[in-house]
C-alpha cells in the first residue's frame, strides 16, 4: 500500500468543533422536555435499608418522581462484563441497585430524584433521610486487613492466575545477588473531566434511545437490552464526543440503567450528569495493590529467579483481579518464575480498568525491583535489562511478533544523555535540590478485539466509513480516515468517518489500546473487498484498461485503481462506477478474520515496549519532588499520525507522573467513605510542575499486525512511576516503594 | 442547594440591616467558597445578600504610611496592585500561590479571611462534624487527617484554616476594619481568627451584625524583607500542607525584627510568637532558626496521618528564614 | 428530537433556549452573552454555568467539577476569566460575558483556537473551551504586567513569559488527557505572534 496519509501529523478532523465549543457531548443535546435526575448515595458500606424518608423530597417544588427499591420498576439482571464473552455486557457488577434493599458499598445509589430543573432535583435529593440496619458482620474495607481471606481467583482476565516455571524460590535462595521487596500502590480514580453522564428517552414501550458518555457502545446496548428485556436493535446508544474516559467509561455504571428507568417512569427524557463526588463513589477506580517482587541473578546479572506475587481488591459483586503480574510474564528471560495473583473482596464500589490496567502498577513493582537489583549488582540498569532480553516470550515460549526494547533504550539513552550519569546516589545538588535520574522499561500488550466496518464509495470521489467505535480524544476519527484514504487512494479530505452510534456496524469497546489495530484491520479488509468489487466490475468490460488485470497487479491511488508497474494505466472509480450506471458501491468487513487471527495469536506474543528516562529534583528539606526532564521512546509499530500518537504518549506520561507523585484516593477504613472525593483534594496533574516531556517512537512496523501498528494509548503510562521512584533513589539514596511519593515519605 | 431570595445591598447599613432582619441570610461577595458550601448543603441560607455594590473595593495608601485593602477588592487585583507588590511581597506571594487565577478573579479579600476549612468531614454533611453541627462529634480526629492541624487543636476540632493570604496578613500584623450596627471597630489579625476550643463552629470573632470594610496593613520598615514559602502536594492549585510567612529585619548579622506565621497547621493562621521571641537579638544562623522552630513546635500534637507536618513545619520555618537572611546579608 | 450521527459529527445541532416555566419563584434575569441579550426567567440559585448550558443552550462552556477545581467552566466576565460554576447568573446582569462561542466559529477561528488545533493542545476536547477562554484572559494579564507565583521579580512589570510562567498561569485549567505541552505551545505561538505585531 502506498502511504500518503498514514503517518502524516494531520490535524484532528474533529478539531474545529472542539475548539469552538460546537462539539456536543452527552449532556448537551437539546432534547425537549428533558428532566434532571440526581442520585442519593448510601452512607454505610454494608447493610439493609430500613426506611427511605423521601417525603420532604417528594414535596419539593418541581419534583416529578422519587424512586427507591420500594417503588421503582424492577429491572432484569444483567451479566457482569466477562472478557471471555465474545460480546460482553458493559455492566461492571452483578448488583442491580434499586432492585434490592441491600447495601453493598458506601456510595451505592439508593434513590433517584427526578425534577424539572437540576437545582430542584439536587435540593430534593439533599432532603432524603435514609435509615439503615447495618450488617452484623463488619464491613470489609481494608485490603491489607483482609489478607488472610485472600484467594487465588480462577482467572486473571483470560489468563491463568499463576505461572510456575522451574523452582523460583530455590533459585532465589541460591542466587549470589538478590533483592526481595514489597511494593504498594494506592487506589486511584480516572476522573475524566467530562463526568459520566447519560441522557435517555423512550418512544413507546420498546424503543429506547440513550446518549451516553461511553467507550463501549455495544456493551451499553447489551446491558440495557438485558435490563429492560428489549431487542438489542431497539436500543440506540449514541456516544460521539466523549470527554475523556481512561477506562472508567468502558463500563456502564449504575446511573446508566437508572437514567433509562427514570425516563420510563416519568414518561420524559431524563438526564443524569454525575456530580464529581459521585464520580468517586459510583464509578469504580483502580484497585490498591501490594506486590512482592524478588529477583535473583548471577554475578553477570542474568536473572535466575523471578518472583512476582501479590494482592489486589475487587468488590463483593465483581471479579476483576487487576493483572499486575502480566508484565513479568513477558518482559525478561529467566529459567525460574513464580507468578501468582491473589484477590480479596471488599465492600466497595466495583474496581475497574484504568489507563494501563495491570501493567501500570505491575511495572512500578517490577521496574523498581530491577533498579534495586542493578544497584545490588553495581551494574548500569540499562545493561541489566539488556542482559536479560529473552529470545522468545519467556512464559508463552513463542516468538515476539515484534520486539525492539534494546533500540528503545539505545535511542532514549542518547537523547537523555544517560551515559554521562554518575550512578552514585546523592551525587548532584543545586542549593537545596537533590537531582537524580532514573530509567525503566515500559511494557503493554498489543491486543486486538473485533470490529465491523462499512465503506461506501461514491461516484463523486468521496468515501464514507462507518463503524460504531469511539473517539475519546485518542485520535481514532482522524487516523482511520487517514487509513481509509490510503487504502482507497483518496485524499483524506474525501473520507468521512462516522462512529459513535449503535446504528452503525458493530465494534468492540475502545480500551486496552486495541482500537487502532482492530478498526484499522477492519478498514483494510473492507477497502480490499471494495477494491475487488470495483475490479470485478472493470474486468467485465473489454474496453477497460483493467480488463485483464489481477488484483495484485494494481494499487489504489489518485481516486482509482492503477497498475503498480505503470502509473499512468488505470481507471478512476468514477469511470468504473459510471460505466455501470452506479452512484456508489459499498463493502463491509469484520476484523479479525476468525481463523487467521486464531493462528496468529497462537504463533506470536504481541507486545509493545518502551524505555522511560527522567530527571527529578527533590527538595532536601521539604521532600517535594519535581520531574524536571523526561525522555520516552516507544516501540508501537507503525505510527498512523505523529501528532495524535505523540499526544497519547505525552498524556500517558503525564498520568504516570500524577500516579507517581500526586494522586491517591483515600479510603476511610471505618466506613468506606472517600474523604478526598473532589478535584480539589484528589490531585490530578496540572500544567505547573511538569517538564517539557520528550517522546519518540521507533516506528518499526510489526509484520504481523494490520498496518504494522500497535495501539499507543497506554504504553507510556507504564514504567513511568518506576522511572520516577528510581530517579528519587538516585537523587536521595532513599527507596520509596509505596506510591505516591509525597513529601512526608522523603522527610 | 436550598432555594433562596436574592437581594442587593446598596450601602453598608442596608446590608447590615438586612442581615439582622434575617438570621438565615448570608452575604455574598465573590462567592467562591459560599456557593460551593451551599451546593454541598453545608451552608443553607434562605436569603443571599449581594454586597458587591458596596464601596469597599479600593486599595490606597493610609496617612500613617500603611496600605488599606478594600474588603471587596478581588484577590487578583490586590496581589497585583503596585503597592502590594512593592511594599508587601510576602502578601503578593501568598495570594498568588493560592487557588487559581480564575478563583482569584472572583474571590474578595474579606471573603478570603472568612473562608471555611477544607476539612474533608466538614465538607461532607453525612459525616459528624462539630464545626458544621456542634455536638455531633469530630470524624477527623480518628479519620483521614493528613491535612489536619498540629497546633492549637481541641478534642472538638482539628481543622485548619485554608487561607494563604491570612497567613501573610498575620505576619504583617494587619488590622481588620469592621463596621457594625453600632459603629466601627478594629480587630488585630491575631484576634480575628479563633482556635477551635469548645466552639469550633466559630471561625472568627466577627459578629453577625458586622461587615468587614477593609484590611489595613501597617507600614513595614524599609530594611525588612519578607517572603511566603508554601509546601504543597501539587506544585500549583493546591492548599498548603505547611506554609510560612516571614518578615525579617537584620542589623548586621543580628535579628532586629522578625515576624513569623504558619499556615496549614492550625485552626487559624499561626503566629509563631515563641519562635520570634527566641530569635530577637540573636545572630541569623541556621542553628538559631532551627532552635526557634523546635521551640515553636514544642506544643504540637500529631494525629494518625499528619505527624510529618511537625518536622515539615520546622524545616519550612528554617528554609524561609535562611532565604531571607541570605538575601539581606548579600544586599 | 432525534439527531443523526451525521448531524452530530458535523456539529449541526441547533442551540435551543429552554422555554420559561410558569413558576412564581422565578425572577427575570437578563444576561449579555457574546454581545447578545438573553432574557431569562431563573431561580436565583441558578449558576452562571447552568444558565449558559441549560437555559440559554450555549453548551460550549463545560461542567467538569462544579466546584471551581477544574476550570472547564471558565468564561470571561468583562474580559476577566472566572469559574462560571461558582457564581450565580443573577449577579452578572449588565456585564459582558464572553464564552467560547463568542471567540470564534469553525469557519472563523480565534488565533488561539487555530493554535490549539495546530499544536494539538487537546485530546478529548472537553476542557478545551475553558482552556482557550482562560488563555485569552491570561495573555491580557501578561500584557498588563500581572505577576504570578513563579515570577521571581515582583517589581518587574514586564513579564518574561517562560514556559514555567505559562504553566503556572494555566494551572487553573485541568486537562486529564494531559495535553499540557500542546497547550503551552499553542499559547506561546499566539503570544509571539501578538508580540510581533
From TrEMBL, chain A:
InterPro entries: Ald_Oxase/Xan_DH_a/b (IPR000674), Ald_Oxase/Xan_DH_a/b_sf (IPR036856), Ald_Oxase/xanthine_DH-like (IPR016208), AldOxase/xan_DH_MoCoBD1 (IPR008274), AldOxase/xan_DH_MoCoBD2 (IPR046867), AldOxase/xan_DH_Mopterin-bd_sf (IPR037165)
Region (Disordered): 71-92
NADP found in the keyword field: no
Keyword list, A-Z: Molybdenum, Oxidoreductase
GO molecular function: iron ion binding; oxidoreductase activity
Aldehyde oxidase/xanthine dehydrogenase a/b hammerhead domain: residues covered: 20-136
Start-end of Basic and acidic residues biased regions: 78-88
Protein's recorded name: Aldehyde oxidase/xanthine dehydrogenase a/b hammerhead domain-containing protein
Automatic annotation (TrEMBL), chain B:
Residues annotated as signal peptide: none
Keyword terms: FAD, Flavoprotein
Annotated FAD-binding PCMH-type domain residues: 1-222
Gene3D superfamilies from the UniProt entry: 3.30.465.10, CO dehydrogenase flavoprotein, C-terminal domain, Uridine Diphospho-n-acetylenolpyruvylglucosamine Reductase, domain 2
UniProt-recorded Gene Ontology molecular function terms: FAD binding; oxidoreductase activity
Superkingdom of origin organism: Bacteria
Pfam family for this entry, one: CO_deh_flav_C
Keyword Flavoprotein assigned: yes
InterPro entries given in the database record: CO_DH_flav_C, CO_DH_flav_C_dom_sf, Diverse_Substr_Oxidored, FAD-bd_PCMH, FAD-bd_PCMH-like_sf, FAD-bd_PCMH_sub1, FAD-bd_PCMH_sub2, Mopterin_DH_FAD-bd
Name of the protein described by the UniProt record: FAD-binding molybdopterin dehydrogenase
Automatic annotation (TrEMBL), chain C:
Keyword terms of this UniProt record: 2Fe-2S, Iron, Iron-sulfur, Metal-binding, Oxidoreductase
Gene3D superfamilies: 3.10.20.30, [2Fe-2S]-binding domain (1.10.150.120)
Domain 2Fe-2S ferredoxin-type: 27-103
CDD domains reported in the protein's UniProt record: fer2
PROSITE patterns: 2FE2S_FER_1, 2FE2S_FER_2
The keyword Iron is annotated on this UniProt entry: yes
Gene Ontology terms for molecular function: 2 iron, 2 sulfur cluster binding; metal ion binding; oxidoreductase activity, acting on the aldehyde or oxo group of donors
Gene Ontology CC annotations of this record: periplasmic space
PANTHER family xrefs: ALDEHYDE OXIDOREDUCTASE IRON-SULFUR-BINDING SUBUNIT PAOA, OXIDOREDUCTASE, IRON-SULPHUR BINDING SUBUNIT-RELATED-RELATED
Protein name (record): 2Fe-2S ferredoxin-type domain-containing protein
Amino acid at each position: 500500500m502506498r502511504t500518503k496519509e498514514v503517518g502524516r501529523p494531520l490535524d484532528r478532523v474533529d478539531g474545529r468543533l472542539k475548539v469552538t465549543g460546537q462539539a456536543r457531548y452527552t449532556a448537551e443535546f437539546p432534547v425537549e422536555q428533558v428532566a434532571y435526575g440526581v442520585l442519593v448515595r448510601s452512607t454505610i458500606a454494608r447493610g439493609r435499608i430500613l426506611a427511605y424518608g423521601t417525603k420532604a423530597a417528594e414535596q419539593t417544588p418541581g419534583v416529578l418522581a422519587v424512586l427507591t427499591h420500594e417503588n421503582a420498576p424492577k429491572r432484569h439482571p444483567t451479566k457482569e462484563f466477562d472478557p471471555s464473552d465474545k460480546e460482553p455486557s458493559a455492566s461492571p457488577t452483578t448488583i442491580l441497585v434499586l432492585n434490592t434493599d441491600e447495601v453493598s458499598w458506601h456510595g451505592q445509589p439508593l434513590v433517584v430524584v427526578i425534577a424539572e430543573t437540576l437545582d430542584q432535583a439536587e435540593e430534593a435529593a439533599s432532603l432524603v433521610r435514609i435509615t439503615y440496619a447495618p450488617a452484623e458482620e463488619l464491613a470489609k474495607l481494608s485490603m491489607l486487613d483482609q489478607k488472610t481471606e485472600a484467594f487465588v481467583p480462577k482467572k486473571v482476565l483470560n489468563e491463568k492466575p499463576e505461572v510456575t516455571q522451574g523452582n523460583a524460590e530455590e533459585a532465589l535462595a541460591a542466587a549470589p545477588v538478590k533483592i526481595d521487596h514489597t511494593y504498594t500502590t494506592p487506589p486511584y480514580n480516572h476522573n475524566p473531566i467530562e463526568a459520566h453522564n447519560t441522557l435517555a428517552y423512550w418512544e413507546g414501550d420498546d424503543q429506547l434511545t440513550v446518549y451516553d458518555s461511553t467507550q463501549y457502545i455495544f456493551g451499553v446496548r447489551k446491558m440495557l437490552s438485558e435490563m429492560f428485556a428489549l431487542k438489542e436493535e431497539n436500543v440506540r446508544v449514541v456516544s460521539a464526543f466523549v470527554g475523556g474516559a481512561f477506562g472508567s467509561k468502558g463500563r456502564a455504571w449504575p446511573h446508566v440503567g437508572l437514567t433509562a428507568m427514570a425516563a420510563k417512569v416519568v414518561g420524559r427524557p431524563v438526564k443524569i450528569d454525575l456530580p464529581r463526588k459521585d464520580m468517586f463513589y459510583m464509578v469504580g477506580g483502580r484497585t490498591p495493590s501490594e506486590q512482592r517482587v524478588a529477583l535473583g541473578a548471577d554475578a553477570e546479572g542474568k536473572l535466575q529467579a523471578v518472583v512476582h506475587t501479590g494482592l489486589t481488591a475487587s468488590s463483593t459483586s465483581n471479579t476483576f483481579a487487576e493483572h499486575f503480574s502480566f508484565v513479568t510474564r513477558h518482559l525478561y528471560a529467566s529459567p525460574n518464575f513464580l507468578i501468582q495473583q491473589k484477590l480479596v473482596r471488599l465492600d466497595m464500589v466495583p474496581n475497574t480498568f484504568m489507563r494501563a490496567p495491570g501493567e501500570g502498577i505491575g511495572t512500578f513493582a517490577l521496574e523498581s525491583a530491577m533498579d534495586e537489583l542493578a544497584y545490588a549488582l553495581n551494574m548500569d540498569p540499562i545493561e541489566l535489562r539488556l542482559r536479560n532480553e529473552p529470545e522468545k516470550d519467556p512464559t508463552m515460549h513463542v516468538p515476539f511478533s515484534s520486539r525492539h526494547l534494546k533500540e528503545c533504550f539505545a535511542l532514549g539513552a542518547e537523547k537523555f544523555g544517560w551515559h554521562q550519569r554518575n550512578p552514585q546516589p546523592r551525587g548532584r545538588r543545586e542549593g537545596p535540590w537533590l537531582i537524580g535520574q532514573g530509567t525503566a522499561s515500559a511494557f503493554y500488550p498489543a491486543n486486538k478485539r473485533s470490529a465491523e466496518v462499512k465503506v461506501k464509495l461514491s461516484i463523486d470521489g468521496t468515501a464514507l466509513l462507518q463503524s460504531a467505535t469511539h473517539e475519546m480524544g485518542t485520535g481514532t476519527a482522524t487516523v482511520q480516515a487517514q487509513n481509509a484514504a490510503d487504502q482507497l487512494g483518496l485524499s483524506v479530505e474525501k473520507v468521512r468517518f462516522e462512529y459513535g452510534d449503535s446504528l452503525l456496524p458493530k465494534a468492540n469497546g475502545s480500551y486496552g489500546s486495541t482500537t487502532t489495530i482492530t478498526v484499522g484491520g477492519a478498514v483494510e479488509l473492507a477497502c480490499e473487498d471494495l477494491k475487488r468489487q470495483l475490479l470485478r466490475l472493470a474486468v467485465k468490460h473489454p474496453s477497460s484498461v483493467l480488463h485483464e488485470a489481477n488484483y495484485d497487479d494494481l494499487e489504489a491511488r489518485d481516486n482509482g485503481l492503477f497498475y503498480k508497474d505503470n502509473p499512468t494505466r488505470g481507471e478512476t472509480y468514477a469511470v468504473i462506477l459510471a460505466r455501470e450506471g452506479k452512484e456508489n458501491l459499498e463493502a463491509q468487513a469484520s476484523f479479525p478474520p476468525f481463523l487467521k487471527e486464531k493462528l496468529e495469536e497462537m504463533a506470536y506474543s504481541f507486545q509493545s515496549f518502551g524505555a522511560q528516562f527522567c530527571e527529578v529534583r527533590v527538595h532536601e528539606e521539604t521532600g517535594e519532588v519535581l520531574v524536571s526532564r523526561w525522555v520516552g521512546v516507544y516501540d508501537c509499530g507503525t505510527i498512523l499520525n505523529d501528532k495524535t500518537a505523540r499526544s497519547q504518549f505525552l498524556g500517558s506520561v503525564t498520568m504516570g507522573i500524577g500516579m507517581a507523585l500526586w494522586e491517591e484516593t483515600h479510603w476511610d477504613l471505618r466506613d468506606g467513605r472517600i474523604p478526598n472525593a473532589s478535584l480539589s483534594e484528589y490531585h490530578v496533574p496540572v500544567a505547573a510542575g511538569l517538564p517539557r516531556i520528550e517522546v519518540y517512537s521507533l516506528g518499526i512496523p510489526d509484520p504481523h499486525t494490520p498496518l504494522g501498528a500497535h495501539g499507543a494509548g497506554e504504553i507510556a503510562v507504564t514504567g513511568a512511576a518506576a522511572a520516577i521512584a528510581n530517579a528519587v533513589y538516585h537523587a536521595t539514596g532513599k527507596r520509596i516503594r509505596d506510591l505516591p511519593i509525597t513529601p512526608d515519605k522523603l522527610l | 442547594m436550598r432555594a433562596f431570595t436574592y437581594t442587593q445591598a446598596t450601602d453598608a447599613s442596608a446590608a447590615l440591616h438586612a442581615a439582622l432582619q434575617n438570621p438565615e441570610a448570608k452575604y455574598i461577595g465573590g462567592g467562591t467558597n459560599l456557593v460551593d458550601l451551599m451546593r454541598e448543603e453545608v451552608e443553607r441560607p434562605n436569603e443571599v445578600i449581594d454586597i458587591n455594590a458596596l464601596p469597599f473595593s479600593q486599595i490606597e495608601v493610609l496617612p500613617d504610611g500603611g496600605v488599606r485593602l478594600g474588603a471587596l477588592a478581588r484577590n487578583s487585583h490586590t496581589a497585583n496592585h503596585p503597592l502590594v507588590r512593592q511594599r508587601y511581597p510576602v502578601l503578593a506571594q501568598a495570594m498568588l500561590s493560592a487557588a487559581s487565577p480564575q478563583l482569584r478573579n472572583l474571590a474578595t479579600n474579606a471573603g478570603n479571611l472568612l473562608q471555611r476549612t477544607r476539612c474533608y468531614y466538614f465538607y461532607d454533611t453525612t459525616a459528624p462534624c462539630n464545626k458544621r453541627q456542634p455536638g455531633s462529634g469530630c470524624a477527623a480526629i480518628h479519620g483521614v487527617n493528613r491535612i489536619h492541624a498540629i497546633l492549637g487543636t481541641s478534642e472538638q476540632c482539628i481543622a485548619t484554616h485554608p487561607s494563604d493570604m491570612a497567613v501573610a496578613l498575620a505576619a504583617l500584623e494587619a488590622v481588620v476594619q469592621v463596621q457594625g450596627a453600632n459603629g466601627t471597630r478594629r480587630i488585630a489579625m491575631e484576634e480575628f481568627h479563633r482556635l477551635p476550643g469548645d466552639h469550633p463552629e466559630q471561625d472568627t470573632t466577627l459578629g453577625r451584625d458586622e461587615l468587614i470594610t477593609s484590611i489595613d496593613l501597617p507600614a513595614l520598615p524599609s530594611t525588612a524583607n519578607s517572603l511566603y514559602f508554601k509546601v504543597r502536594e501539587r506544585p500549583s492549585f493546591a492548599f498548603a500542607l505547611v506554609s510560612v510567612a516571614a518578615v525579617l529585619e537584620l542589623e548586621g548579622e543580628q535579628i532586629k525584627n522578625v515576624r513569623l506565621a504558619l499556615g496549614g497547621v492550625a485552626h487559624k493562621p499561626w503566629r509563631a510568637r515563641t519562635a520570634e521571641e527566641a530569635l530577637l537579638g540573636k545572630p541569623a544562623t541556621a542553628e538559631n532558626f532551627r532552635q526557634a522552630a523546635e521551640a515553636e513546635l514544642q506544643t504540637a500534637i500529631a494525629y494518625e496521618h499528619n505527624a510529618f507536618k511537625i518536622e515539615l513545619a520546622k524545616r519550612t520555618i528554617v528554609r524561609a528564614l535562611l532565604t531571607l537572611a541570605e538575601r539581606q546579608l548579600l544586599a | 428530537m432525534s439527531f443523526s450521527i451525521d448531524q452530530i459529527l458535523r456539529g449541526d445541532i441547533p442551540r435551543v433556549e429552554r422555554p420559561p416555566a410558569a413558576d412564581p419563584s422565578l425572577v427575570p434575569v437578563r444576561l449579555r452573552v457574546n454581545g447578545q441579550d438573553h432574557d431569562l426567567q431563573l431561580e436565583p440559585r441558578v449558576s452562571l454555568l447552568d444558565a449558559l448550558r441549560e437555559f440559554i443552550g450555549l453548551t460550549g462552556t463545560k461542567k467538569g467539577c462544579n466546584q471551581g477545581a477544574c476550570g472547564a467552566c471558565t468564561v470571561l466576565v468583562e474580559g476577566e476569566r472566572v469559574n462560571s460554576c461558582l457564581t450565580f447568573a443573577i449577579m452578572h446582569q449588565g456585564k459582558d460575558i464572553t464564552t467560547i462561542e463568542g471567540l470564534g466559529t469553525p469557519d472563523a477561528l480565534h488565533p488561539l483556537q487555530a493554535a490549539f488545533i495546530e499544536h494539538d493542545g487537546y485530546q478529548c476536547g472537553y476542557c478545551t473551551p475553558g482552556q482557550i477562554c482562560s488563555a485569552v484572559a491570561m495573555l491580557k494579564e501578561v500584557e498588563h504586567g500581572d505577576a504570578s507565583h513563579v515570577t521571581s521579580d515582583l517589581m518587574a512589570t514586564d513579564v518574561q513569559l517562560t514556559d514555567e510562567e505559562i504553566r503556572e498561569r494555566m494551572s487553573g485549567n485541568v486537562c486529564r488527557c494531559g495535553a499540557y505541552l500542546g497547550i503551552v505551545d499553542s499559547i506561546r505561538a499566539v503570544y509571539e505572534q501578538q508580540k510581533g505585531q
